Amino acid sequence: MKKTPAELTVMKSLAFLAVVFQSALLYIMNHRSPHAEEAIMMGMLFHFVKFSAPVFVFLVGFHMAQQKEAIHYRRYVSHKWTELMIPYIVWSFVYFILFSSHLHASEVMKQLVLGEAAPHLWYVVMIIQFHLLILIIVPFFRWLDQKNYWKSFIIVSAIIYIGFITFISPIVQSESYIHYVDRTFLAYFFYFCLGGVAAYTLPSWRKFVIQAIPLNTFLFLSLFIVVGYELFISQSIFSIDLTEITYLKPSMVLYVTSEIFLLYGLSITIVQTKSRLYTALRFIGRYTYGAYIGHVFFLHMFAPMIPTTMYSMLQAVILFLITTIASIGICYMVHATPLSLLLIGQTREHRTLSIPTISKLKKGIPS
């Protein structure tokens, strides 16, 4: 597999931070009583960071397109089971204990299969489906590359996807079992295809993303106004429900796609600066999956400690910062323990202090 471009690590970290901020905003909206003007601002910010799942899917598509060697399916699936599903199952049971008092075995199985143990776990159920289809996806990507059909492919994919989303948009708002289509790979396949296109046409992709920034910024701001308008005309400003905001409607598809282009350009810029921000995002990128599935636990642990007398927006920001630091920090510590594979899907990291470090520590010990 080719070396992963540095900007993808930055994008992954930004997507993780967006998830945590969404969760913080949701918690404050649902458990505190923000004023109407604060609720409006939080709704707008929620839309602004509502790009995480499509970006993660984009990144999976990119990585899968980088598969150049022969695929050993059983080995690949076993690796993904260890990396993704074992932590998913462990954390699901943590959330069963946290959120549910009495669950029957059938209900536990249903929530495991559908990713309902916590609000964010549906993503794991959806993304594993792409990995299971690798034997179809990778040869198809290679065929597209041989025929140089990428431009036609992404245009056709976009048309089909918009049509599909237009069709299922009313369904995902219903209460029937059909609405679970929102956690199938079909509901996000366009972003996956976009990632594949980016991987195979990387130099052209980077050039296009950078050149499109002025026009795309205008497009993004216009779509931001549109999706915000749709939110506020569909709900009362005194009872905004952020859980009703869905990726699966045509305007959000256009909005999120535009935001992916902007994020990619921003990520390239961050990489080029080689600043402390880049260093921090690289570190966060090592633990995004473990921190992603565990962050809701830490959020609910620390949320009661935040004074309710503060402005709701300030509460959300503080909760976001504490949850981010706790999630990444705990993952870093767990990575050096035997629990690493169970909780964050990574093999244990054996850390040793370097000789210069030990010498410094000894100098600091009083005799």
Automatic annotation (TrEMBL):
One Pfam family matching this protein: Acyl_transf_3
Compartmental location: Cell membrane
UniProt keyword list: Acyltransferase, Cell membrane, Membrane, Transferase, Transmembrane, Transmembrane helix
Domain called Acyltransferase: residue spans: 7-332
Biological process annotations from GO: enterobacterial common antigen biosynthetic process
Top-level division of the source organism's lineage: Bacteria
One MF annotation (Gene Ontology) recorded for this entry: O-acetyltransferase activity
GO cellular component: plasma membrane
Protein family according to the UniProt entry: Belongs to the acyltransferase 3 family.
Protein name as it appears in the record: Surface polysaccharide O-acyltransferase-like enzyme
